[in-house]
Amino acid sequence: MKSYYLILPAVIIILATASCRTMPRRAVAVKPFSQEKYLGKWYEIARLDYKYERHLDHVTAEYGLKPNGLISVTNRGFNYKKQRWEESRGKAKPAGDPKEGKLKVSFFGPFYSGYNVIALSEDYKYAMVAGKNTNYLWLLSRETTMPEDIKAGFLEKARNIGYATGELVWVKQD
């Protein structure tokens, strides 16, 4: 019975630490990162699907600077099953050093989740974004397409981190 009391605190600490993780273990946010250059409209090229984006094509994400210093987030996509546009609005803020591509994003009040820019072209034209774990990944472009060499580099990096890139949904942007 005494060993139970020794193991329980260790288990609680491990679970608490794991639940606070904001980025996959082998992922690293880009640095230096310019929040100002990242603002604007991005087209979703590919994603690991999850319930809030299921059945969406023509997906865009638009980031703007709010007067209070937070970043406004507007995600928009066409639900081809329901035949209608869907939109969600949220906010983001740096998760530490603002010169690092590590942000927190919220669409539900005070609850934030990791939004980590883990690959970014020098001209801020193409980006790969990781969520809090390997269930969340997005490939983004300032255009409706992404060159094959950029895509291949991003996919290799994602596989090395532990992402199941074969499960990516390639978003229609025509």
CATH C-level category: Mainly Beta
Give me the secondary-structure category.
Answer: alpha+beta
Please identify, by name, the CATH architecture: Beta Barrel
Question: Residue-averaged pLDDT, rounded?
Answer: 89
Strands, count: 9
Portion in beta strands:
35-45%
- Range of helix content: 10-25%
> From the alpha-carbon coordinates, what is the Rg to the nearest angstrom?
18 Å
What is the strand arrangement across the widest sheet?
A: 1-2-3-4-5-6-7-8
Description:
- The longest helix has 18 residues, at 2-19.
- The protein has an 8-stranded antiparallel beta barrel with strand order 1-2-3-4-5-6-7-8.
- Residues 1-20 have low confidence and may be disordered.
- The radius of gyration is 18 Å and the shape is globular.
- The chain has a single domain (2-170), classed as Beta Barrel (Lipocalin).
- By secondary structure, it is of the alpha+beta class.
- The protein contains 3 helices and 9 strands.
- The N and C termini lie far apart (63 Å).
